[in-house]
Amino acid sequence: MTRISTTALALMAGAAAWLGLAATAAAQEKKIVIGVTCDRTGPTQIVGTVLCPAQHDYFDYVNANHLLDGYTIDHPEIETGYKVPPAVEAYQRQKQQGAIIMPIYGTPQTHALNERLEQDKIVATTPGFGIAASADGQKYPYLFPIAASYFSQGAAAVKFAKDQAGGSLKGKKIAYIYYDNPAGTEPIPVLKDLQNLEGFELRTFAVPPPGVELTAQVLDITQRYKADFVISHLFGRSPSVSIKEFKANGYPLSKVIAMVWASGEADIKAAGGWEVAQGYNTMQFAGAGDNYPIRQKIKAMYEKAGKAVPAIMDNTVYYNRGLFNAAIEVEALSNALKSANGNALTGTDVKKGMEQIHDFTMDGLVPPLQITPTDHEGGGWVRIFRVEGNGFVPVTDWFNAYRDIVWQQVKAAEQTQ
Amino acid sequence: MFHRESGVFKTSYAADMALYPLPIAKWAVAAFAGLFIAIAPLTLGEYDLSLLNLCLVAIVGALGLNILLGYTGQISIGQGAFMSVGAYTAANLIVHLGLPFWITIPAGGLMAALIGTLVGIPSLRIKGIYLAIATLAAQLIIEWTINHVHWISGGIQASIEIPRPSLFGHVLASEADIYLFLMFFAVLAIVATLNLVRSRIGRAFIAIRDQDVAAEIIGINIFRYKLYAFAISSFYAGVAGVLESYYLGIANYEQFQLDVSIDYLAMVIIGGLGSVLGSIFGAVFVTLLPIVTRWALEAAGGMFLTEANLADLVPHLRLVIFGALIIFFLIVEPDGLARLWRNIRSYFRVWPFSY
């Protein structure tokens, strides 16, 4: 017994010394901490395993090229498995490490951290995850959804349908097929308002979780309701199933517009590949495809280090969304550093830096955001990419639509809080 | 807890059932109370307190499930849903009526108890794995109802934001305030459970668990006591749900999904069925193990790997280690951590002599 405990003590002492050493080695000067959280093992791992490495790649790229005024970015990541308590733990840990900006992963996590962010004055970006109402910077001062909310996406989908129909939707039938959870139902009020404004007929079709059985809904849409246009707001496995079902019913995919989480390469591949999904319209809040200089620079960074370019870069939609999120954060930091005059950055500085982002487009990867103290969504921009050949081809420029109706809903949503 | 007597000297039932078998037990408990209530909030940092806060909420929930599963032998996979019932009840009372926590916490618990009793009705006819399926159905039905009935879920994306609790005009905003707030209810839950299981009701629960036919023959009304078990267990779950919502500042249905119910099941099984101390061990173990594993992996991996590679590796490795440790502890001691603790104590009772 005595011998065992001596060994154990020695081991513990060794470990403690080692941890201490590691801590001192990590301490560096002129460092900015960005606290990354991610889901790599939970229900949204298909997205997380691509989006989060993209963020790290971008931060590494900024560090390698000294693009941040002599500062290096420290970007520790904590994985939450899309659960809320681990996200709170991660937040406290990263706050302790001195993070002043955090890309938050997940909608419930955003809800749970909102109050703490405001209390501790830490900026968070939540593209594609956050609370739609957090577009209002007056009500949610430290949350930056930066990407188009579901309200904006719904409005943009109707605008796209209108343009496809030749400028008028009067008397047309639009089907809205959605995953039956709160995120799925969120755009419905906007669609209903637009129905009155544009005079189209709207019918909603719910897909109950887990959303792999859509035969009845698609039959209803294509055979009974005979929709002129379909807005598809699905998550996870269901987008690929929906593509297959529409195809099997002979419905032209060019009349389907998918919202942002039904628009990845993974969905196309799971549906049977590019040739099956020809004509499928996808909505993006960051540019899809490989033709952006930053992607080539990151590839060059890997090649220079003698490493293989990671395969996840082929998943351009989610990868580019990670780049988009990271780039906006770095841009905000860079703006904040300019006005800080060498003082240590605070969350308030970063917030101001974020609110100065105008027309920072990164050669088309990022929409022409206009983030202001009142509009943290930056305008709700999207771009439609259509599946043609073996990739996504843009069919519109960046656009946003029906901003007054979207903002009415934002204000109405605030009332219910 | 740490006391040890040299033999069995009890001569009455009252002495056998006393919460403090020896005077030293009283002192040990007092010391622990002092350590966690007075010293911890003053000395620990925000991060450490936030970890303890997560544990405290889990302890209340795990105690509730242990009353049902460990003491009465009725399995439930609906713990997460009962928590959500409590959370949404309290959230609506807070947001619409502005009620303080000392009303909303019992109210959330009572509503959960009501729903839990309804869900418990099938337990009269079905047992074991069939009952598990019935409670699984409850989990899904409650989740669906919350999502689709807007006067319950309100808010944006079925979530209701809740202001911090306040006591005599003082808003409990800091991590230490919330720690004491949660600690109060956790201690209340622990003491209540300790007393419940040595009462008439608790003995009836244990009789039903050990042999329900025999329990009925000696005059225990099985129907009533099974429903009691469901009601009490759901009450705890509801309170845990309200506490979690107060801590997070939000009631959101995604906090209470099926995986949460499974987590609580794991806590109770790993900690030890039918043991209050086991519920505490299990709650702390399941809450902290993933976090501690990550610290260890990060410290070890940081020497060899880049940050990005580490981020890719750690979550997956962590799940493997988490699973392996659970299997390890269950093989070492199938009756859970509480039993392991008892074994250690009885080893030291006669130490250094082995007989």
Structural commentary:
- The complex is a heterodimer of chains A (417) and B (355).
- Chain A is α/β, with parallel strands linked by helices and 417 residues long.
- Chain A has two domains: 29-148 and 290-364, Response regulator (Rossmann fold); 150-284 and 383-415, Response regulator (Rossmann fold).
- Chain A has helices at residues 2-26, 45-64, 84-96, 107-120, 150-164, 182-185, 188-198, 215-224, 238-248, 265-270, 293-304, 316-340, 347-354, 403-415; strands spanning 31-34, 36-38, 72-74, 77-79, 99-103, 123-125, 143-144, 173-179, 201-207, 229-233, 256-258, 281-284, 383-388, 391-394.
- In chain A, the strands form three sheets. In chain A, strands 9-8-10-11-12-13-14 form a seven-stranded mixed β-sheet.
- In chain A, strand 11, helix 10 and strand 12 (281-284) form a beta-alpha-beta unit.
- The longest helix of chain A is centred in the first third of the chain and has 25 residues, at 2-26.
- The termini of chain A are far apart.
- With 355 residues, chain B is mainly α.
- Chain B has helices at residues 13-17, 23-43, 46-71, 79-97, 101-120, 128-148, 150-153, 175-197, 200-210, 212-217, 222-248, 258-271, 276-301, 307-332, 337-350, and strands at residues 159-161, 166-167, 170-171, 250-252.
- In chain B, the strands form two sheets. In chain B, strands 1-4 form a two-stranded antiparallel sheet. In chain B, strands 2-3 form a two-stranded antiparallel ribbon.
- Chain B has one domain (45-350): ABC transporter involved in vitamin B12 uptake, BtuC (Orthogonal Bundle).
- In chain B, strand 2 (166-167) and strand 3 form a beta hairpin.
- The chains are: A alpha/beta (417), B mainly alpha (355).
- Chains A and B meet through helix 1, helix 2, strand 4, helix 3 and helix 4 of A and helix 3, strand 1, helix 11, helix 13 and helix 14 of B.
